[in-house]
Predict the structure.
Amino acid sequence: MSHDIHLHHITRVEGHGNIVLNIREGRIEELRLEIVESPRFFEVMVIGRHITEAPHITSRICGICAISHTSASVKACEAALGITPSDTVVLLRKILLNAETLQSHILHLYLLVAPDFFRVGSVIPLAKTHPDIVKRGLRLKKTANEICRILVGRHVHPIGMTIGGFTKMPTQKDLQEVRKVVEAAIPDMEETVRLFEGLEIPEFNRETRYCSLRDENEYALYDGRLYSKDTPLTEVNQYREFITEEVIEYSTAKHVRSGDSSIMVGALARLNNNHAHLLPEAKEAAARLGLSLPCTNPFMNNAAQVVESVHCIYDSLRLLDLLFEKPHSPASLGTELNSVPPKLTRAGLGVGVVEAPRGTLYHEYGVDERGMIQSVNCIIPTAQNLANIEKDIRAIVPMILGLPKEEIERTLEMLTRAYDPCISCSTHFLEVKFVE
Amino acid sequence: MNKDKLLVIGLGNLLMGDDGAGIHIVHELQRRQLPDHVDLIDGGTAGVGLVDILSSYRRVIVIDAIADNGGDPSGIRLFSPDDLILREGEGDYSIHDVELTSILSLMKSLDMEIPDITIMGIPAVTFTPGIGLSEGCRRFIPEGIDLIMKMRQGDTKNLKDGGNSHDCL
């Protein structure tokens, strides 16, 4: 059997890209995951700017991951400048990361994955046949928008997050409002678990290296050390020993490896590494979804996103409780910080790492004694998954060659989509076309 | 819910050159005194988040960059979303990056109330990575600000007709 398959502009992922797959007599002759949009030279834009500008510039890289980019950026700046944020600030940042993880997963699940589930082409026909489902997704998205609006002043591109803290710390009343918003989302979240209990998951398993942050005390999204079960725990400022980037001729995005292996980052990788720290409600959701951990089926990343969404809701309530209990000092609730720039009196190199919805996000800045940025390195999650997606395709194609062409196409698209690639951050991604 | 208010929202990516024209105008407007009944939002690349924002208003002005396919930018264009869909079909020009038309299609499919939207298209020259506007685009920013400031209260039709009224917001 011979196919020249060009999955050209795979649909329903964030951005544009191609899969080129040539099969001759049941063997793969050629396989490439191409990134076709020119890379956005965000790193270059930050060089030569004052360090206080970096979080605001990088918050504009992506409308979906704006909190993550800003968080990684402020952490990198703080590391470079030797600034330690208060516990209160860290708790608030964790709530914001939970909100962004929730909204990103929900958008992917309801607007991009659910159409596969109901075998329709996009969310538009789904909205006509199942409006209640789409409206539920939008309500949950609104939950996250509201949390961001209350805590950092905007639905997107958080203006209030800054080096050292927030331009204006939220008041107790703000936090009570956040709590109401989060609690109101619980019934919709329960319905979401119910909906995806019946998710069609192809049987496909391939073990790879699952990489994420790991924290000894909690499910790591904001902080921790770099972990995979095959490598020693690595401090974030030593990240170049944990992963390496390599330029690929056919792709404008670099590929990433850890040691001798391609890697997977994102919801499933985090669950595989850190499921012991999931809250009980999330563990229950995993059981209902048939997600037995560790799991080597990349299609289950969608189920993992549902589980993390549940975790983020209940973890936000837990964090709010801690905020209400905390005795507040210097950067306390309700304080006007007036965006006072921190003391920028030293040159340094700072690394900031967070778990963005799609996986580990790295920002590294080198600054001179005037606080001017001299070097930047930014590694996004999707770039880390690209080599692994190629390997998955290479492994699954022999298993599905006997299927009709449309089913091969659909399976490869679903596989790519399961990784929830956000090529917009680096490039753009996919429309499907067979070339024979 | 802000049904009695007028929303002025800029869309685009500040890191993609002229694509951020709408955001530049919103930032300029933030420095001015606007009446209480006007909400000003830097929408950035809000994407699906626009559903929530747009459904909260009855009257909306969307400021976004438009890409002319060929020729010199001829000036700010004012149109409705229906015009935009039609003209996109004709290959004339399109909203870049944020897919407003997709958002409106989704809202229509869900039988959601769609506000009266006027799109102010700022002619853009470059949509390439970079912070700041091209000279060709920047010259339209003062006019865009004037058009917004000259609008009568809640009267978006006035804006569509060319913004010639001297009544202020």
